[in-house]
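Proteins fold reproducibly. Look at a concrete instance:
___
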Amino acid sequence: MKPIVIASKNKGKIKEFKELLAEYDLEVKSLLDFSDIPDVEETGETFHENAALKAKTIGDLLNCPVIADDSGLMIDALDDRPGVYSARYAGEDSNDEKNNLKVLKELESVDEDKRTARFIAVLAFYRPGEEIVFREGYCEGEITFGPRGKHGFGYDPIFIPKGYTKTMAQLKDYEKNIISHRAEAIHQFKVWLNEHGL
């Protein structure tokens, strides 16, 4: 099996990647398998810059192929915030719950038809010594008035995908893996992988 490393310590994200790459003969590892790897500071100003930074840093450290992604929530009524700051929107000591509450607070006076938003995922694939390959995916939807559901992570409890009545956090894993922004980005990557191989 060929090794590939997911440049993340987020268990929810790692689980999604492993499920979506399960059809390939790959030994999928994550940063949880390498206790001595330091966190890569996301200093980029775009999702592409952050994904590339993580992929290249980890790929060069481990000398093996790496997939990194930077993803976030963009809300029209908030001028595309939280954007690249999605993971730490409520501050450096933020967590999913605090981030969700901050978004809901900022949207308190926004009507239902103006709560449109989208998840974006930018995936960067890096093999040491080669150019970085980017793929991206989106999931359109709207923000609820309160959290619903126990599945998923991040902003899933307050995001209803377009065409659905349930939040991402109320969907089953297989349902989410069909429509999610990460699933779309990985699908685009699979098309590339089928053509070029690992």
User: Anything to note?
Assistant: The chain has a mean pLDDT of 94. The chain has five helices and seven strands. Residues 2-196 form a domain with the Maf protein fold (CATH 3.90.950.10).
